[in-house]
Amino acid sequence: MIDPQHFERVRIVQDLSLETTAAVDPKACGTKVVTDVFAASPDSLFPLQGALGYELHQTLFIGPNSLVVEGVSDLMYLQVMSDQLQKKGYTGLEPRWTITPVGGALKVPAFVALLGSQKGMNIAMLIDYQHSNKQKIEAIYKDKLLRKANIFTFSDFTKTDEADIEDMFGDEFYIELVNAEFGAQLSVPVDAAKLTLKKPRILERIEHYIVEHPLKEGRFSHYRPSRYFSENIKSLEKKIPKAAVDRFKSAVDALNALLPKQ
């Protein structure tokens, strides 16, 4: 009923007989077509607000080519590394991709099911991989929500049993980000040699390290190193390991290959 491409054509139909304010003149009761949205009642505006909100959501977070990631930190790392690839003469992530953070691994299947129900959508996933979520990932292509070829995990590019996006950078560089961002809060700087937990994911090992060496205040958040990386990329770009660049290049190339030819 509402064309999101032409909100200026919308006319609000307001039934004055339903108004509860005492100021309404009984003689004026009836149906009124309102062209000025500021003159409409909140109830009459609600359908327009809903349509506008939906269109904004579609425009900002969903596009015809949607790349589903778990969180905002993934989005930030991918955007910055895409720029770095281009600076080095490689192809960055195609601007046709709309990176869509869904707020965690548990929300990925439901979100993909929601997107997949819309015609003309080209959807890909690039997410963390842990053995505990293997079945959920497999269910996405077994239930035909996505083709298996459209589902990537970071372990595909780190060549390890489990991996988060942080593992794409390698242990030393990511630890440098953590120490720089949490320096004032760390009772003991993170030391790769002292990470006692024998797990493949660097994030899991650092979280265990901080349990053993608690922060002076606050809590550890994996979002903060990604923000630090984004804000300080000019001073950090020369320190990014070549292996990290190669991993992100492989991921970007694989994703870009899924786009329809123009």
Portion in strands:
5-15%
The topology string of helices and strands comes to EEHEHEHEHEHHHHHH
Low-confidence region ranges: 52-60
Number of helices: 10
How many DSSP E strands? 6
The overall pLDDT average reads 84
Q: Radius of gyration from the CA trace?
A: 24 Å
Largest sheet: 4 strands, parallel
Q: In one word, what is the shape?
A: globular
Strand order, biggest sheet?
Answer: 4-3-5-6
Q: What oligomerization state is this entry in?
A: single chain
Fraction of residues in H or I helices: 40-55%
Structural class: alpha/beta
Distance between the termini: 32 Å
Taken together, the total number of domains comes to: 2
Describe it for me?
The protein is α/β, with parallel strands linked by helices. The protein folds into two domains: 7-59, no CATH class; 63-256, no CATH class. Helix content is 42%, strand content 10%. It contains ten helices and six strands; from the N terminus they run E-E-H-E-H-E-H-E-H-E-H-H-H-H-H-H. The protein has helices at residues 42-61, 72-87, 108-116, 134-142, 155-158, 171-182, 202-212, 223-231, 233-236, 242-256, and strands spanning 12-15, 31-34, 65-69, 98-101, 122-127, 151-153. A four-stranded parallel beta sheet has the order 4-3-5-6, with helices on both faces. Strands 1-2 form a two-stranded antiparallel ribbon. The radius of gyration is 24 Å and the shape is globular. The two termini are 32 Å apart. Mean pLDDT is 84; it is low at 52-60.
